[in-house]
Each structure stands twice: as structure tokens, then as C-alpha cells.
Amino acid sequence: MTKGGMESVEVFTTEGKGRGLKAQKEFLPGDVIFAEPAYAAVVFDSLTHVICHTCFKRQERLHRCGQCKFAYYCDRTCQRAAWLNHKNECSAIKRHGKAPTENIRLAARILWKIEREGSGLSEGCLVSIDELQNHVDSFGEEEKKELRTDVESFLEFWPPHCQQFGMQFISHIFGVISCNGFTLSDQRGLQAVGVGIFPNLCQANHDCWPNCTVVFNNGNHEAVRSMFHTQMRIELRALNKISPGDELTVSYVDFLNLSEERRKQLKKQYYFDCTCEHCKKQLKDDLMLAVKAGESKPSADTVKEVIQLSKDTLEKINKARMEGHYHEVVKLCRDCLTKQEPVLGETNIYLLRILSIASEVLSYLQMFEEAADYAKRMVDGYLKIYHPNNAQLGMAVMRAGVTHWHAGLIEAGHGLICKAYAILLITHGPSHPITKDLEVMRVQTEMELRMFQQNEFMYYKMREAALKNQKIQVMPEPSNENAPSLFHKKE
């Protein structure tokens, strides 16, 4: 079944998993299998005044809608492009007196679109909104209570002159949002800023070791034509060679968890038991639980003790980070690493989590040499665990490369930046803002490396002079959030 620009994929029914997507032709790593605009999308409640409601870019100065005073846009082009979807919302917010929550706003946008176009197949969609999974029957008591609250709030917001929908259909829409909402990120891909429904993407089944990845593209603000200027979309990209007839899979969760933890998370959030090869055979679990090898192998009790200490420390770290006590975070990390290092192996996830936090926070505090050491160890561990073309691996390698560069370790810094660039070319593509930033860094570090190789003494002299004249670029403040996960699940 193919439709409008979706000729390269086919919907098929898989045993035990329902519908899935299958490739109709061969794809190579980095190929865009399809790009899909959102059926409907909204900005998170907490970010409505700092994120454009059309393209989801974060901007310093935004234009506010003069009528409802709620929606914000980058510029007039984004505002005009939004009007079809914002028109009903605008008058409903004015009538209601305030904007409702993101879930209510998204459900309303979906139902206004159905009012305009009907609930059948939309242009370029392989399935209709009616056919998307809602899993309402699998909801627990707490989820059912939330659903009833959402439906009541929706009915208060929904204007009486608009098409009226039955309670069952409204509940179906909220179920679809709960199970299929896709996380939208800002232009750097570092912060989750909204949620959208992409019916074609919803058909891709999960695999912990997938052959595809999804990247959010915010459009091209240099383009004059509004179609390109504002067209935010998701892109499904191939991670390795895919043959015609192969199922297309994506990962709904971060791989850097034990198979049992991933399965629990998938069951809780998406109501299915993962039967992928990595979960069934518990592949890589041994690496993620590795202990120090050698003659003085630690006892099981010692390992258990250190893992418990690591879990307790991670909780303390989260609290200190929330309060912005970064020096306290560094102390907690150093103390924990002292206990971990004689006991845990270099790929143990508890060690890697502490190394990741330590390198990020130390970079922010401009203690680059110590940060670089931790970042290198973190990347060495990640490279043994993650898929070689994993987006989160690419971002971690990039961060490590920048840290080494700031520390004056130009050879290692350039090598890591090149490695990150090779990964992100596949996962994000050459035109993504992150890849473009990385290309600039790659050229700059290459130039510095040549200078370093020609005359090491002169390189350090020039670097010292440059740092005196120009304050070194401060790393972004460490975030308490993990990288945005693929699908948005209301916690």
C-alpha cells in the first residue's frame, strides 16, 4: 500500500506485532526513507512563549498572535503558515479565556483537521487516524482517570458551533496521543519542545537494535518560499544497508539499559513484550554489567554493594543538579568513581553514567583536562555497546571531541570530532544544524592540527594568546533531562 511520496515503503501485518513497515527498495546508510510532516503538533505548555508554534525552533524574539495572545512565531512567514491550524484554536482560546494543556490542544487540532478533511486517509498517509492504535483497553486505573479528566477538559474547551464527536471517538484520539505522540525537539535536537502525531511513523515497529533512526527537521529558515521555510517534518533514515522486503524498525527507548529494564519500560509505556534478538538473547547485558577482570576479581557481594552505591549516588547527583550545585555534583562523581574503578568493568553502565555526568559538568565548570579524561573513557565504553550509527553515540562523541579541543588536546579532539561527524552524517544528514556546526568545528580543528604538527611550541603560544584575548566559549549548562526519547509518553 503506497500513497503520495511514500512509494518506497509498504504497510504489512506482522504476526504478534500488528502492522509494520517494509522497504520496497534498497537503502544505504544515511538514505532518507521518507519525510513526513505532522498530522498535528503542539508546543509543550512550559515552553509556549520561547518556541515557534509552527517550526518548533527556539528563538530569542518571537512574534505573538495579536488575537489570542497565546501562540508565538519566528516571523510572519511562520505565522501565515500556521493560520489554517491556529484559526479555530485562536477563537476557542479567546472564548475559553485561557489555553488548555498540550494534550487538549493536540486533540483539538486533530479533531479540527478531521472536521475539515474527514477521518479517512489524508494526503501522503498510509493509514487513517481511525486506524491508529489507542491501547485504551490496556490502560490502568490511573491512566483511565487521566483519560476521563482529559475528555472532560476537552469538552469544556471544544466550541459548541464545531462538529460534535462521540465520547468514544474523543477517547480514541487521547489514546492515540498517549501511545503514538512523537517528541519534537528544538533545532539542536537537545531539548524536547513539543509533541506531534505522524501516522506513517507510527507504523514502524520497535527493535532495540533497529535498522532506522528518526530525526526531527525544523525546516530551512534561509528559504524564501514558505513551504521550505516552515516545513517541519520527521525523517526516517537508514542506519545500515536495507534490502527490499526488510522490515523497517526504530528504537522507542535508549539502548543503554539492561534488556530487562528496556522490556519493563516498553511494557509500561507501549503495552507490548519486546521479542527482539537483543532482548531474547540478552545481548550486550554482560558488557553493561562488566566487572574488573584479572586475578583479584571482586566478590559478588562487593559488586552488589558498589552498584547500590552507584544508584544512591545518581539520586543525590540528580538532586544537586536540580539545585544547580555543580561543584557538589563533581565531588559526588569523584567519590563514586573512586569506589567504582577497582570493581566495575570499563563498559559497566553504572560507571558510564557517572563518567558522562562528570565530563559534562566539569566541561561546564571549564575544568577541561579532567573532563576530557572522563569523556574519553565514556566514549570508549559507548563504542563497545551502542550500534555504530547510533545518534546518541554520535552526540556523545561530539561532546567528548569539543571537551578535548577546549582542553588543548587538539589531536584527540580532532579525531573525535571527525568520528562524530561520520556518525551524524548518517543519523542527521548533512543539512541538519548539528551536522553543520560539527562541519565548522571539523574544519577549524583540522587547521589547528596542521599548525600543531608544523610547530607545537608556536601552536601553544598562539593558543595562549587567543585565550587571553577572547574568553573561552562556555559549554552549555548541564541539562537534567536525557536526550529526547523517540515517542512522547505523558508520565
From TrEMBL:
Key words, A-Z: Cytoplasm, DNA-binding, Metal-binding, Methyltransferase, Nucleus, Repressor, S-adenosyl-L-methionine, Transcription, Transcription regulation, Transferase, Zinc, Zinc-finger
Cell location: Cytoplasm; Nucleus
UniProt key word S-adenosyl-L-methionine: yes
GO MF terms held by the record: DNA binding; histone H3K4 trimethyltransferase activity; zinc ion binding
Reactions listed under catalytic activity: L-lysyl(4)-[histone H3] + 3 S-adenosyl-L-methionine = N(6),N(6),N(6)-trimethyl-L-lysyl(4)-[histone H3] + 3 S-adenosyl-L-homocysteine + 3 H(+)
Domain MYND-type, first and last residues per copy: 52-90
GO biological process, one term: methylation
EC number(s) on file: 2.1.1.354
Alphabetical list of PROSITE patterns matching this protein: SET (PS50280), ZF_MYND_2 (PS50865)
Tagged with keyword Zinc-finger: yes
Any single Pfam family the record assigns to this protein: zf-MYND
Gene Ontology CC annotation, any one: cytoplasm
Domain SET per the UniProt entry, residue ranges: 7-253
Top enzyme category: transferase
Subunit record text: Interacts with HDAC1, HDAC2 and HDAC3. Interacts (via MYND-type zinc finger) with NACA isoform skNAC.
Name under which the protein is recorded: [histone H3]-lysine(4) N-trimethyltransferase
Organism this protein belongs to: Mohoua ochrocephala
